[in-house]
């Protein structure tokens, strides 16, 4: 029987954002500073010298933004709560700010009125500056775990009657490594004294990560003991999970790919889902690797109801180098034959690894078996190119493989981020930027992988949130890097849906389970017309709507894919050569 082309019942899709990246209005309604406020104002910390004071102005434009989301037809919205709006100084004995609670409360009500499921992240990197100043933030285990637990409790109390999907912490790897190791993210600590006056990159990242895991577990304990019995929601952590592929088929590079995964994913996922740290980390770090007490392990193990997964790209892994944050593994996008693994994004760390061949059928749950099976099966499979290791190209789409790998943690997967920054998108005007065919191409690959993973491989995936709903502050990149499916003109704050938004809306509409769609449509008490016209005929251009009236221009027809363009140009060149 042919696999289903539909998504499962109750599948959730929507777009994702984070408070500091979109809100702006940093000194409004009693908000306290976060560690990103002043950090980005220091010379050299952001690529364009800009900061988050205005960002995408979404604190002011929140109603219009929700209307735009509704007009996209999403079923959910992943957003984050700003800790320092809710508790301006952050601590458990500091006052709660009623205006902060009121803002998010109205926000959640508005989402629900549009039939949109609120998917709330408690912590997306914007630690209250008060806690950094008071005791060093995430470095202080006793204090931060209690303060975070208290903040989480305040949020469950205020919003848990309506929020049924909670993410505790977003990508702790970035807080630990980029914030306390490389020093490129707030609070910017590092051993590199050219970068930071304080910090120890050899110890602090491991301590920070350890404390984050415990804080997460403490928040989950409170939720499960005090709120879940009446509120009945789900709670979990969300981790970055880029795929690691061996550079070639040498045994040391096959090991290197596993080592990279141990340090990137296993560092968090093994304790939370399996109850131990990866042995390879202990081997490399020795007594610099912290451990939990038995009581702590008892709340850490099993502290996530699902696997929250942010995934963007694939790295080719080569043994060697001295980068501990990558598990003493070198990353590259250049294959042994000099070709590129994928199409380069604006972000240096991101390439679109196109959907390859899904010839390998695996139902195994560990990387080493995946690699070995691929090596064994490779000779019978179609070959691409001749020089480089063929089985690498056969290792299907990154998302698909990652999704299957994460089955080792044996819980439903919620894909909470996946996206692409188009090269030089900030150098062109809105009319050009909305024709974002590189991003469309990226999502064509990842959505296909998503569907195949669900319907062919039987992976239990419950949600998919492309990053991001809006162009926004891309952390240390400032506004030079855009991930949005909606273009934001940062001068006027007008929103322009890109072709990628159109592609995704249409893709999900066509694949949504009809009963699920009817159920969610019935929940909306407010409606706005779809921004791209009739839902059943999305190719017919933009319609006006309350949300669309805010838009700077109408959406354009989907872009030609560069693949098609390139093919056409090649054909033209061949024709001309023939005529000549
Ligand atoms: C994630 N890297 O960050 C975050 O959750 C988002 O806030 C962010 O905007 C998005 O991905 C795009 O960058 C990452 O260097 C930042 O590998 C950096 C890396 C990965 C993820």
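^ Assign residues to that structure.
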């Amino acid at each position: 029987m042919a696999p289903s082309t539909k998504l499962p019942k109750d599948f959730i899709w929507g777009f994702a954002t984070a408070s500091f990246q979109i809100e702006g209005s940093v000194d409004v309604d009693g908000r306290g500073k976060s560690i990103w406020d002043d950090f980005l104002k220091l010379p050299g910390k952001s690529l364009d010298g800009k900061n988050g004071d205005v960002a995408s102005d979404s604190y002011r434009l929140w109603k219009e933004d929700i209307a735009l989301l509704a007009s996209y037809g999403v079923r959910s919205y992943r957003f984050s709560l700003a800790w320092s709006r809710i508790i301006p100084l952050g601590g458990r004995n500091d006052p709660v700010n009623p205006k902060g609670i009121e803002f998010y409360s109205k926000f959640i009500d508005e989402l629900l009125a549009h039939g949109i499921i609120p998917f709330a992240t408690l912590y997306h990197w914007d630690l209250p500056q008060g806690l950094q100043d008071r005791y060093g933030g995430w470095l202080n285990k006793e204090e931060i775990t209690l303060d975070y637990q208290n903040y989480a409790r305040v949020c469950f109390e205020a919003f848990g009657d309506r929020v049924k999907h909670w993410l505790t912490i977003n990508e702790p790897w970035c807080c630990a490594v980029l914030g306390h190791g490389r020093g490129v993210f707030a609070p910017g600590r590092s051993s590199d004294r050219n970068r930071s006056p304080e910090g120890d990159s050899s110890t602090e990242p491991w301590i920070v990560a350890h404390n984050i895991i415990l804080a997460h577990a403490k928040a989950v304990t409170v939720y499960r003991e005090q709120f879940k019995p009446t509120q009945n929601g789900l709670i979990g952590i969300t981790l970055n999970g880029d795929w690691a592929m061996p550079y070639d088929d040498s045994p040391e590079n096959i090991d290197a790919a596993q080592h990279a995964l141990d340090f990137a994913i296993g560092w968090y996922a093994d304790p939370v889902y399996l109850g131990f740290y990866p042995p390879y980390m202990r081997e490399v770090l020795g007594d610099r690797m912290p451990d939990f007490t038995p009581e702590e392990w008892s709340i850490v193990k099993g502290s996530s109801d699902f696997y929250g997964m942010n995934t963007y790209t694939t790295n080719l892994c080569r043994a060697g180098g001295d980068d501990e944050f990558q598990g003493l593994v070198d990353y590259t996008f250049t294959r042994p034959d000099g070709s590129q693994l994928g199409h380069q994004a604006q972000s240096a760390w991101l390439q679109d690894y196109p959907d390859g061949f899904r010839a390998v059928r695996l139902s195994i749950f560990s990387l080493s078996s995946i690699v070995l099976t691929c090596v064994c099966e490779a000779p019978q499979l179609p070959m691409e190119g001749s020089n480089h290791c063929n089985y690498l190209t056969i290792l299907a789409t990154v998302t698909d493989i990652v999704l299957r790998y994460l089955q080792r943690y044996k819980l439903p997967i919620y894909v909470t981020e996946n996206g692409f920054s188009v090269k030089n998108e900030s150098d062109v005007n809105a009319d050009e930027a909305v024709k974002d065919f590189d991003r469309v191409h990226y999502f064509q690959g990842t959505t296909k992988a998503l569907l195949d993973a669900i319907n062919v491989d039987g992976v239990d995936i419950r949600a998919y949130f492309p990053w991001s709903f809006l162009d926004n502050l891309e952390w240390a990149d400032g506004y030079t890097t855009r991930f949005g499916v909606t273009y934001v003109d940062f001068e006027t704050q007008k929103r322009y849906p890109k072709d990628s938004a159109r592609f995704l809306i249409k893709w999900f509409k066509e694949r949504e389970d009809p009963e699920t769609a009817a159920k969610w449509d019935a929940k909306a008490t407010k409606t706005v017309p779809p921004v791209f016209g009739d839902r059943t005929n999305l190719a017919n251009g933009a319609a006006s709507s309350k949300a669309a009236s805010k838009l700077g221009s109408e959406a354009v027809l989907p872009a030609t894919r560069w693949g098609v363009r390139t093919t056409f140009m090649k054909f033209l060149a061949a024709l001309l050569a023939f005529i000549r």
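The chain has one domain: 12-364+394-523.
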